[in-house]
Write a structure and sequence with these properties.
Distance between the termini of chain A: 14 Å
Oligomer: heterodimer
Strand content of chain B: under 5%
Number of strands of chain B: 0
Number of helices of chain B: 19
Shape of chain B: globular
Order of helices and strands of chain A: EHEHHEHEEE
Number of helices of chain A: 4
Distance between the termini of chain B: 32 Å
Order of helices and strands of chain B: HHHHHHHHHHHHHHHHHHH
Largest sheet of chain A: 4 strands, antiparallel
Shape of chain A: rod-shaped
Strand order of the largest sheet of chain A: 2-3-1-4
Helix content of chain A: 40-55%
Structural class of chain A: alpha+beta
């Protein structure tokens, strides 16, 4: 995987770099910004904010509810033994199990959706630089076409504050991320 | 947050993971020995039979079930408090949440062991499961034990995920900062986390949703544990307020455990710059509130029993007021109310040390409270010929002690492998060095220029 990226210290420089990449004709989804903490104050950090996560969590809850109803009613009807003078299908105690499975469904759906939509763990090595852990902010483009690389480099350096890096990734431990060779 | 502060936070919080002194090994050795003693005692109990315990007719629930209720209560420290503080976006929560969430995960694991220990022959635990059977077992799908299974499973799953998800960015940091086996381990745990804007948004959205979902689950868990008692027609158990009473007690004991854990970490890992007195002040206020709420529930419950004057209930009640259980009862009142309330009410006493003292008494008091819910009622049932006594035997006491060591051991090992304070969340928040900042402001040339 090839990548062209630059490392910045200040979020304002990151915003400038993102704007320059847009002006250079790079599509929004091709611009990657990586940081060691969420940054709220700038426009670039609000990209990708829209999510279906709450709705999917709700659907997970509904699936859990259905599973709870099926499990409780199904087992009671499959082994119809009267206990405590309760009806065979006893809704009061069933509601407790149904509630727990509803919440479990919502929680599991949230986590699975997080992993899928945020692509963690990703199948293939992706653009990354360990300097991010020292507080640097990375702005870059993955797999650029060879003929646009000079334009991308100019866009990233236009603000004057970045450290430009590009090239194929260095061989790193399988699970330890991808470090493009400087 | 500027780069220097961010780097200092990383260095400070990674130091306990990367530097290991002989004290760590000594502590682990001592705690592991106590845990080994507990495991050995349990094995001895299994080999010799359950008759080694003091459990006998009519008191079939005693120390082990007391421990079960106590540890499930302690588990309310973490996820519930953390979720509430996350939802209200309390800035001071940042150094506290992970310390708290870890308590939940480990306390639930320890608590969930006790019904198995209580079985006597744990290899037959599956007899409890209402599965389709050819052995003519009559499965009762309406049993509160089934509710326990679903509630604890859901809470444990949710709590572990709630703890682990925010750890992924910190694992990525560790992956980049370490070498050798640590780099490999944290590389696997980091799941190729990059830190893209999309990943941050999804993580924060997921944490918000989970915080909303986990609060009712946490409340339901201890309510359902209370149903184990209140569904039975036993004197002083068959009460409508047991649900909220148990939840209040659980949060009460949970906060006390959290304060003690935080104070210990602060001292041992030198986290004075991150766990400030204000964190203890705030948790101390919460503990005070819960102490008053707990006292209100105890008063309501006891007054109703006394005024109702139903013979069997009053017998169980009087056993705790002036009978054989009275010393334990009044110790509980002193530990949960008489000592903590003045300490936590007075600002001068609500120091870190004061909060730890109050919390230690609360833990003792809450364990006694669980014991006094379980045993006196069973030993004073409706017909006097079935009354009996219970005296704990050495196996029960040793296993109980070992679970406290198990909690401390798990917590110690966790703090050795994972930053006990969420580094990325701390970086997002305010500067954690306010004292230093004030010093810088005071020393600023501008101020010195003013006569």
């Amino acid at each position: 995987m090839n990548a062209v990226y630059a490392l910045y210290t200040e979020p304002a420089d990151v915003q400038r770099a993102v704007d320059n990449l847009r002006a250079a004709g790079v599509a929004e989804h091709e611009i990657t910004v990586i940081s060691s903490e969420p940054i709220e104050e700038f426009e670039f950090s609000h990209r990708d904010e829209a999510t279906w996560l709450p709705w999917i969590a709700g659907c997970g809850g509904a699936a859990g509810l259905a599973a709870g109803v099926l499990l409780t009613v199904g087992t009671e009807l499959a082994w119809p033994i009267s206990t405590g003078n309760m009806p065979i299908v006893a809704w009061w105690p069933n509601l407790i199990v149904i509630f727990e499975l509803t919440m479990l469904g919502a929680i599991l759906a949230t986590v699975v959706t997080l992993f899928v939509t945020a692509r963690i763990p990703s199948r293939e090595p992706r653009m990354y630089d360990p300097a991010v852990s020292d507080g640097k902010i990375l702005v870059g483009v993955e797999k650029p076409a060879a003929d646009v690389i000079p334009a991308l480099e100019r866009a990233l350096l236009a603000g004057g504050a970045g450290q430009l890096r590009s090239g194929p990734p260095a061989p790193t431990p399988a699970a330890a991320g991808t470090n493009p060779r400087p | 947050m500027n780069e220097t502060t961010a780097r200092r936070i990383s260095d400070d919080l990674l130091r306990p993971l990367l530097n290991t002194s002989w004290r760590f090994y000594a502590l682990v050795a001592v705690l592991a020995s106590v845990v080994a003693m507990g495991v050995g005692t349990w094995a001895y109990q299994m080999y010799m039979g359950f008759g080694l315990t003091g459990i006998n007719n009519p008191v079939f629930w005693a120390f082990y079930i007391t421990n079960f209720v106590f540890w499930i209560g302690i588990s309310h420290a973490g996820t519930l408090i953390s979720a509430i503080l996350r939802l209200v976006d309390a800035g001071w929560r940042r150094p506290v949440t992970r310390c708290a969430e870890v308590i939940t995960a480990f306390a639930l694991m320890i608590g969930a062991m006790f019904p198995i220990i209580h079985l006597g022959r744990p290899w037959l635990f599956f007899w409890l499961v209402p599965y389709p059977s050819e052995r003519q077992i009559w499965p009762n799908f309406r049993s509160p034990l089934v509710w326990d299974f679903f509630a604890i499973t859901t809470y444990l799953t949710g709590s572990v995920l709630f703890l682990v998800l925010p750890m992924i960015p910190d694992f990525a940091l560790l992956r980049d900062k370490t070498t050798g086996w640590r780099r490999t381990l944290y590389g696997v745990l980091a799941l190729r986390w990059q830190g893209t804007t999309k990943q941050w948004h999804r993580l924060e959205s997921a944490m918000q949703i989970m915080a909303i979902a986990i609060i009712p689950v946490a409340v339901s868990v201890h309510t359902i544990v209370s149903f184990d008692f209140s569904m039975a027609p036993v004197p002083m158990w068959h009460s409508t307020i047991f649900g909220p009473y148990f939840v209040a007690g659980a949060i009460f004991s949970g906060i006390a455990a959290l304060i003690i854990a935080m104070a210990t970490l602060r001292k041992l890992l030198h986290l004075e710059d991150y766990l400030h007195p204000v964190h203890f002040q705030n948790l101390g206020k919460l503990l005070l509130l819960m102490s008053l709420l707990w006292a209100y529930f105890v008063f309501s419950e006891r007054l109703t029993v006394w005024y109702g004057n139903e013979a069997a209930e009053v017998a169980a009640f009087l056993a705790t007021q002036r009978g054989s259980y009275a010393p334990l009862y009044w110790t509980m009142i002193v530990c949960n109310f008489v000592i903590p309330v003045p300490i936590l009410s007075l600002r001068k006493l609500r120091t870190i040390g004061g909060c730890v003292v109050a919390s230690s008494f609360v833990l003792v008091g809450m364990w006694l409270e669980r014991f006094l819910i379980v045993v006196p009622s069973l030993s004073h049932k409706y017909l006097t010929y079935s009354w009996g006594h219970y005296r704990p035997q050495p196996v029960e006491i040793l296993i109980t002690i070992s679970t406290f060591a198990a909690m401390a051991l798990l917590y110690t090992l966790f703090a050795k492998l994972v930053p006990i304070i969420s580094i990325w969340e701390l970086k997002v928040g305010e500067d954690p060095f306010p004292a230093e900042t004030q010093e810088q402001i005071r020393d600023h040339p501008l101020w010195k220029a003013i006569p």
